[in-house]
């Protein structure tokens, strides 16, 4: 029995040595070979243009990533350290639902715009708290939620009732 145990330990030790990292593997990679920063999205998402027309008739244009799938919606803007001005993410819900959002693993403040089936903003959660797990919802069923950099809606004068248009929204609408 002791001989058998010694053989197993010896074999395990040799296997561990063979699987060990090569010399120098514990040194950090050169800057040019380093992994992308946490703010860079590892997933390539579809992008589209989106326009919010305010009550004065001014158009506010954005380029947004589209989160169509449950996996994309779960990932959202998590781990991103910045949301450049004029960009955001559009979460689509088909059929419309009582959407709730949170800020888990999201290090930047966001404005969340809940868009009703009629294409109008039904609620806005401004300057949300980074990393918060408090759930934020709209007023009724939403066809989409638009996330922009925190403070974007205040800066642009965007309010509840403003109209949102995008080719991405058309198939998500089910007015009842």
From TrEMBL:
Keyword Kinase: no
Listed InterPro entries: DUF192 (IPR003795), Saro_0823-like_sf (IPR038695)
Keyword field: Signal
Position of the signal peptide: 1-25
Region listing for Disordered, in residue ranges: 23-46
Keyword Acyltransferase carried by entry: no
Biased composition (Low complexity): 32-43
One Pfam family it belongs to: DUF192
Highest rank taxon of the organism: Bacteria
Name of the protein described by the UniProt record: DUF192 domain-containing protein
Organism: Swaminathania salitolerans
